[in-house]
Write a structure and sequence with these properties.
Elements (H helix, E strand, L loop, with lengths): L3 E2 L10 H7 L5 H17 L4 E2 L7 H12 L4 H9 L2 H4 L4 H8 L1 H10 L10 H18 L2 H15 L6 H21 L3 H15 L1 H17 L1 H17 L4 E7 L2 H10 L11 E7 L2 H14 L8 E2 L12 E6 L5 E8 H9 L3 H4 L5 H23 L3 H11 L4 E5 L5 E5 L4 H8 L1 H5 L1 E6 L2 E3 L11 E5 L16 H33 L9 H11 L4 H9 L5 H8 L16 E3 L7 E3 L11 E6 L3 E6 L15 E2 L1 E3 L7 E10 L4 H11 L3 E7 L7 E10 L2 H12 L4 E7 L2
Helix pairs in contact: 1-3, 2-4, 3-4, 3-9, 4-7, 4-9, 6-7, 7-8, 7-9, 8-18, 8-19, 9-11, 10-11, 11-12, 13-15, 18-22, 19-22, 20-22, 22-24, 22-25
Length: 715
């Protein structure tokens, strides 16, 4: 992110500290390459200054220094020094590739924004920038590490920006960058980004809370010191080697707790906690037992992230104890290796050159998440939709559930059985029909809880339901469902389009098989479409008129006024899927006189002839089409009926029995509120085969003595 301003004379900060830091872990030839990148960047940014008045090169140097703290390799450090060169100067990606190598150029490209491309809105531009960055990150995780270091330095120096820009950047950091840092296990950066965002978004709240924490630190110093000494003594008595340190919660973390639980600051006792670091896993559990003997644990406040690590690889035992004077005390217990991962996350791969299984596990989990980004991208319609899916997956709260084989799976809080099914495998998600949670059959929309054993029941011919989109929470599930529905609609629209085109060609006294390849090729060139199926899908979705396409294929002129009325009828079978929809306002069923309305992008919407909505498009012949029912429809159709009945015991059971006897199914039922009358009104949504079937159901219901009136309701 650039903070370039007009030139102001100021002293250029030296990069000696950076070179000194690099010499602690890089070879001399690598340091020479980094120094060369520094000289190149300094020359490219010559004459450019930041909003604060410092020479612009001070920013890339600061970003590189942050990465050097993680011991990143020379390629990443060179890319950090050059990360704004392509964006803010005349230097090209190709020049960087020639001078510093292709990997460095790819890293720079992944971090650079897409300022050269015109976007419809700021939202689209921002979403496309994130999409590009996240996909580059999926190929090489160093891209996001450079970007996070870049964002961290910009947040540290955000005071030079105007208030509006400060607020926008801080909000973006809180919504995207801080959660990504958390997802990658970079705890230190995550906390600092949240606190800096909080400081710029709510400066007054930040100031008041910071002052309160400072005061509390003084007031509680004696208690904290007493507890720390007691913990050390107890562990020593148990012959456990441990390092005990106090830790203070981040301000934004305290603020979130106050907001989420509607607490005042004086009610938040656990602003100060303790960390116990030991040599191995058995010592973690021994320490836990020793501390539970020292202070009583608070029920329900123990979490074992060692046996069940967080999705970002974090491991620790968390327990909350009743301390002296009834003050709750939070304690984290972990090994030295776990502490490395907790502090540096995915960056621990570079920071600690180790073969520890914990570090490898972090890399593996990060790799799985990055691969899921590529999967979501391949099925998202555009960058805004992609970003929407990713934001969902960045929520930090998680639930841990078990597969029937005992494998642990982490999902966002609020995840349902459908989210779990897609997390197992796309095919399992697409074909799920039911779920057993802890051996009990429950609805697919059931929210999962920690420790649930989840078993998905699938069926070979099942397919995703559009209603799932209302309650799934993971980006993977949402993108797969949307992709499947789009693909299904495309196939169904192409099939309908083929029937519409056949009908239009017959009106011109031609058949589809009479159209030669040359005419099809000419049409594809003129329309810019890639295949015949795309043409058919456009016709089926109402994006192109069938008669116009037919005339283009037959190389005839423009259609004459009223020519649409010469076309035959399209037969409605009821099994066309999303390409043919039935209007909610009149709920047509076989036997009703019907008319089709071509709705652009959605296909055909079928109304009854007497539907009030029809009058809106009757005058425009290009928008409607003659349709008729197939004599042999193989589908049940929804229809609403209203009954006025005597308010007597058992009447609903009698009505339900008659409906079932007549071969119909009740989809929904509701009753109007009781008003003390002798009669009440019941509304049913029934499923019937056709108008004759409905008439049969209504005749059966009229035989019931308590039924006073029965009517079909449209709309």
């Amino acid at each position: 992110m650039s903070q370039i301003s007009t030139p102001r004379r100021t002293r250029m900060p030296e990069a000696l500290e950076l070179t000194k830091q690099l010499s602690t872990y890089l070879k001399s030839e690598d340091i020479m390459q980094v120094e060369e990148a520094f000289r190149f960047s300094k020359a490219a940014h010559k004459g450019q200054f930041r909003k604060s008045g410092e020479p612009y090169i001070s920013h890339p140097v600061a970003v590189t220094t942050i990465l050097a703290e993680w011991h990143l390799d020379a390629q990443a450090l060179m890319a950090a020094l050059l990360h704004d060169v392509v964006e803010d100067t005349l230097t090209t990606k190709e020049e960087i590739a020639i001078k510093f190598g292709k990997p460095v150029a790819e890293l720079v490209d992944g971090v650079s924004k897409l300022d050269k491309i015109e976007f419809q809105t700021q939202e689209h531009a921002q979403a496309e920038n994130f999409r590009k960055m996240l996909l580059a990150m999926a190929r090489d995780v160093r891209v996001i590490l450079i970007k996070l270091a870049d964002r961290l330095h910009n947040m540290r120096t955000l005071g030079a920006m105007n208030a509006q820009k400060r607020e926008r950047i801080a909000q973006e950091t809180l919504e995207i960058y801080a959660p990504i840092a958390n997802r990658l296990g970079l705890n230190n950066i995550y906390g600092e980004l949240e606190d800096l965002s909080f400081h710029h978004l709510y400066p007054n709240r930040y100031r008041v809370l910071a002052k309160a924490v400072m005061a509390a630190r003084g007031n509680r110093r004696e208690v904290v010191s007493k507890v720390e000494d007691a913990i050390k003594q107890r562990l020593q008595n148990a012959n456990i080697e441990a390092v005990v340190t106090g830790r203070e919660k981040h301000l934004y973390s305290i603020y979130k707790k106050m907001q989420g639980k509607s607490l005042t600051f004086s009610e938040v006792f656990d602003i100060y906690g303790f960390r116990v670091t030991v040599k191995d896993i058995p010592s973690c559990y021994l320490s836990l037992g020793a501390l539970h003997c020292l202070y009583k644990p608070i029920p329900g406040k123990f979490k074992d992230y060692i046996a069940i690590p967080k999705a970002n690889g974090y491991q620790s035992l968390h327990t909350t104890l009743f301390g002296p004077f009834g003050t709750p005390i939070e304690v984290q217990i972990r090994t030295t290796e776990m502490h490395k991962v907790a502090e540096a996350g995915v960056a621990s791969h570079w920071l600690y050159k180790s073969s520890d299984s914990e570090l490898n596990d972090v890399q593996q989990k990060t790799h799985q998440w990055l691969q899921s980004l590529l999967e979501i991208q391949s099925e998202s319609g555009d960058s805004v939709e992609f970003l929407e899916h990713i934001k969902v997956d960045l929520f930090p709260d998680e639930v841990y559930v078990f597969t029937p084989q005992g494998k642990i799976m982490a999902l966002p809080r609020g995840a349902t059985a459908v989210d779990f099914a897609y997390a197992v495998h796309t095919d399992v998600g697409n074909r799920c029909v039911a779920v057993k949670i802890n051996h009990e059959v429950l609805p697919l929309r059931t929210e999962l809880r920690n420790g649930d054993r989840v078993e998905i029941v699938t069926a070979a011919h099942a397919k995703p339901n559009p209603a799932w989109l209302h309650y799934v929470v993971t980006g993977k599930a949402r993108s797969h469902i949307r992709h499947y529905l789009k693909t299904m609609q495309y196939g169904e629209s192409a099939s309908l389009g083929e029937r519409l085109l056949d009908q239009a060609l017959r009106a011109l006294r031609a058949e589809t098989n009479e159209v030669d390849d040359a005419h099809w090729d000419k049409l594809l060139r003129e329309t810019g479409l890639k295949s015949r199926q795309e043409v058919m899908a456009d016709v089926g979705l109402g994006k192109r008129l069938a008669i116009v396409v037919a005339r283009q294929l037959m190389a005839q002129g423009e259609p004459q006024t009223g020519e649409r009325r010469q076309l035959g009828s399209i037969t409605i079978r009821g099994s066309e899927g999303m390409a043919v929809q039935f209007a909610k306002c009149c709920q047509p069923i076989p036997g009703d006189p019907i008319i089709g309305f071509i709705k652009k992008g959605q296909g055909i919407l079928v109304h009854t002839h007497d539907c009030p909505s029809v009058s809106q498009f009757r005058t425009d012949p290009d928008k409607w089409i003659d349709v008729e029912w197939d004599p042999d429809t193989k589908k049940l159709f929804d229809v609403n009926i209203k009954l006025v009945v005597a308010n007597q015991r058992g009447v609903l059971a009698k009505i339900a029995a008659e409906i079932a006897e007549a071969g119909s199914n009740i989809d929904k039922v509701s009753m109007e509120e009781e008003d003390g009358s002798a009669y009440t009104t019941i509304h049913f949504m029934l499923q019937v085969e056709n108008r004759m079937h409905l008439a049969q159901v209504m005749r059966s219901l009229r035989k019931i003595q308590e039924v006073v009136r029965i009517t079909r309701v449209k709309g």
